[in-house]
């Protein structure tokens, strides 16, 4: 167990961008900061509480700043804007956070972000080993690969409000008038955050790009998901699926937003891409054949979506495996 005396709030301030960059490199991982305008003057403030291999942070730059990094390797980062927001390219996804919309960034992908002027964020750094341990305990079996969470969290949902409540507890620990922080007070709150992620935020693991959930979804969402998995090669209309399972199209979209953080069409596209890749890599089908087999008939759009999903064109996958 960590030494209680080590749990102290540290604060760093800087007025020059280079000083802020040097501090972040030693605190997190390799970062490159660039000003949005010619001046490198910033109002950088970082309050930080480290507990073992996780930590809670308050961070601001003051000015608009661009941030580039090779990615997090040993931790997840839960980012919750208090003001302003961040535009980020994370792997192949383009994301946007703002008050009311948080992000959970998983280990691995490179990222480039633009912090808007006046942005202030809570940032919870979560040790990936803790996520793996809790996943094994909740799922009652080991899984291959770290979970990669769907990154956008709607803070208006019940689980989103719970995330806000939990991070507020950490924020209270950062207050200048707060009492000394004991490790015993941190561990249950951090575990609650991880469990909330695993139970309510869909994720992919291993080679799959189709998100899954540990906690059961409502019957109508499960029925729709079963249809997408079984009939992906058909020309599926979401209005027809909603009618088939006896609900409105709006309720169908709301259900997928809440339980998968994706639209039904996004899930269908991922199912099709995963099956197409199997056909290309395992069965040796050409890209056009694979596309038609999963219900897609525009080869150009198929290839572009394939590259967005896997980072490589289908023709490159063929060359690699043959």
Automatic annotation (TrEMBL):
Keywords: DNA-binding, Transcription, Transcription regulation
Cleavable signal peptide: none
Coiled-coil blocks: none
UniProt keyword Amino-acid biosynthesis, yes or no: no
Residue span(s) of domain HTH araC/xylS-type: 222-320
Record carries keyword Transcription: yes
Stored PROSITE patterns: HTH_ARAC_FAMILY_2
Pfam families: AraC_binding_2, HTH_18
Molecular function via GO: DNA-binding transcription factor activity; sequence-specific DNA binding
Name of the protein in question: AraC-like DNA-binding protein
Organism: Rhizobium lusitanum
């Amino acid at each position: 167990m960590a030494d209680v005396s080590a749990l102290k709030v540290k604060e760093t301030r800087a007025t020059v961008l280079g000083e802020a960059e040097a501090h972040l490199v030693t605190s997190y991982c390799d970062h490159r900061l660039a000003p949005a305008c010619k001046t490198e003057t910033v109002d950088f403030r970082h309050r930080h509480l480290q507990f073992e291999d996780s930590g809670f942070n308050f961070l601001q730059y003051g000015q608009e700043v661009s941030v580039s990094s090779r990615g997090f390797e040993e931790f997840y980062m839960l980012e919750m804007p208090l003001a302003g927001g961040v535009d980020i390219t994370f792997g192949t996804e383009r994301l946007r956070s703002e008050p009311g919309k948080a992000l959970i960034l998983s280990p691995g992908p490179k990222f480039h972000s633009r912090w808007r002027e006046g942005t202030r964020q809570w940032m919870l750094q979560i040790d990936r080993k803790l996520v793996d341990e809790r996943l094994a305990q909740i799922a009652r079996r080991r899984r291959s690969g770290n979970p990669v969470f769907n990154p956008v969290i709607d803070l208006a949902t019940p689980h989103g409000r719970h995330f806000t409540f939990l991070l507020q507890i950490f924020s209270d620990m950062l207050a200048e008038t707060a009492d000394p922080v004991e490790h015993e007070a941190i561990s249950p709150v951090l575990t609650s955050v991880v469990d909330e992620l695993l139970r309510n935020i869909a994720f992919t693991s291993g080679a799959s790009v189709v998100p899954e959930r540990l906690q059961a979804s409502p019957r109508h969402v499960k029925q729709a998901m079963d249809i997408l998995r079984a009939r992906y090669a058909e020309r599926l209309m979401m209005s027809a699926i909603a009618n088939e399972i006896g609900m409105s199209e709006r309720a169908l979209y709301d259900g997928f937003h809440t339980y998968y953080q994706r639209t039904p069409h996004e899930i269908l596209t991922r199912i099709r891409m995963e099956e197409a890749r199997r056909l290309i890599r395992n069965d040796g089908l050409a890209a056009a054949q694979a596309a038609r087999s999963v219900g897609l008939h525009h080869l150009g759009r198929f290839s572009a979506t394939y590259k967005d999903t896997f980072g490589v064109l289908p023709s490159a996958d063929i060359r690699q495996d043959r």
